[in-house]
Specification:
Blueprint lengths: L1 H24 L11 H11 L1 H14 L6 H29 L4 H11 L6 H18 L2 H27 L12
């Protein structure tokens, strides 16, 4: 089981990491990222389809075509955790080696959302943006935050996949020809 979790987790991790690294490492300080949150989460969901594929392989090849919810869910969580670790490492590489300043960009976005407000609201937004920048520079805060960007999606996909795949009639294993 650990080899299966590792295999499908690494595949999911590579799928989620390549677009992240490709997009962020080529940015210059003047650029804006070309992908938005929707595209980012689409890549996350696509990569985490490996949770379903890995669970199905576990059910069909290891468990003989039948699996209970809890073991299937555990496999899904393992695959999700491996993929999430790849995501975190990729983001840390982006933070360390990109010439683009994510923190400055995010602070500017926070301040833009406060424009048009009262001077007190703007002052509060500036304080919150500065607080975020200080907090995000600490890897002990940033790493868990990054992990929590992807892992809950994997948790949800694991729940749904385990519920679906516990029924052996759903996508049954093919007999060897």
């Amino acid at each position: 089981m650990p080899a299966l979790i590792l295999r499908y987790g690494v595949i999911a991790g590579v799928i989620v990491s390549i677009p992240l690294l490709w997009n962020w490492l080529k940015l210059t300080p003047e650029d804006k990222p070309i992908t938005g949150m929707l595209f980012g989460y689409l890549i996350i969901v696509v990569s985490l389809t490996m949770v379903f594929v890995g669970m199905k392989a576990y059910r069909d090849k290891v468990m003989g075509g039948v699996v209970h919810f809890v073991p299937a869910f555990a496999v899904g969580l393992g695959i999700s955790a491996v993929a999430s670790l790849f995501y975190v490492v990729s983001w840390e590489i982006c933070m360390a080696y990109s010439s683009w300043d994510f923190i400055a960009y995010y602070k500017a976005a926070m301040l833009d959302s406060a424009k048009g407000g009262t001077p007190e609201q703007l002052q509060k937004a500036v304080a919150e943006a500065d607080s975020f920048a200080t907090m995000y520079q600490n890897p002990l805060v940033r790493v868990p935050m990054t992990f929590l960007e992807i892992f809950p999606v994997g948790l949800l996909i694991s729940l749904v996949s385990a519920a679906v795949l516990r029924n052996p009639r759903v996508l049954p294993a093919r007999a060897a020809a």
